[in-house]
Design brief:
CATH architecture: 3-Layer(aba) Sandwich
Radius of gyration: 15 Å
Helix content: 25-40%
Shape: globular
Order of helices and strands: EHHEHEHEHEHEH
Distance between the termini: 9 Å
Number of helices: 7
CATH class: Alpha Beta
Length: 185
């Protein structure tokens, strides 16, 4: 699948810990392994901030409380990519400053440099990074696929509505198994 990249978004230790699902990481690992085997670049996206959090406004409801915690800065072990799906040497890790993978990051530069035109989205949470990234990527004219079971959300009904009703308006929606089978051909 030339011109395609798999995005693994916000699968960081503290975020995974807040969304317990014993099957999620092995399933996501299956998508990552399929991408690597097919030569599809895997791009990791993490949320991270400078020490002291000068890049978080107190008006930001999503991240404002995080600034008080001192978390999600370089070296914070809870902010590392979960070791079960960690990047290989040479795989790109993009750090973002807001919910969308594009906000405050160089993701667009990385994708354009690799001539990527189609994104396969995975991550935590469906109603957060996946939704925000999908909307922005669609506006940037990327082709999109969402791996429904490669995404996770604390609210199962919100996940269902997004993957079954909202996302199909702008993306193809598949399971990890369906996509892995297709990418391996």
């Amino acid at each position: 699948m030339p011109e395609t990249a798999l995005l693994v978004m916000d699968v960081q230790q503290a975020i995974v810990d807040r969304h317990p699902d014993a099957d999620y990481l092995p399933r996501l690992r299956g998508a990552i392994d399929a991408a690597r085997a097919a030569g599809v670049p895997v791009v990791y996206v993490v949320v991270g901030f400078r020490p002291g959090h000068p890049d978080i406004s107190p008006r930001n409801k999503t991240f404002g409380a995080l600034a008080q915690s001192g978390r999600f800065v370089e070296g914070d072990l809870s902010a590392r990519i979960h070791p079960d799906v960690a990047p290989l040497p040479g795989e790109v890790v993009v750090t973002k400053k807001r919910v969308s993978a594009f906000a405050g990051s160089d993701l667009d530069v990385v994708l354009r440099a690799g001539d990527v035109r189609h994104l396969v989205l995975t991550g935590i949470a469906t109603s957060g990074v996946v939704l925000s990234t999908l909307r922005q990527a669609a506006d940037l004219d990327f082709g999109l696929t969402v791996l429904a079971d490669g995404c996770l959300d604390g609210d199962l009904e919100v996940h269902r509505v997004l993957t079954e009703k909202v996302f199909p308006r702008q993306a193809d929606v598949a399971t990890v198994e369906e996509w892995a089978g297709a990418v391996g051909r």
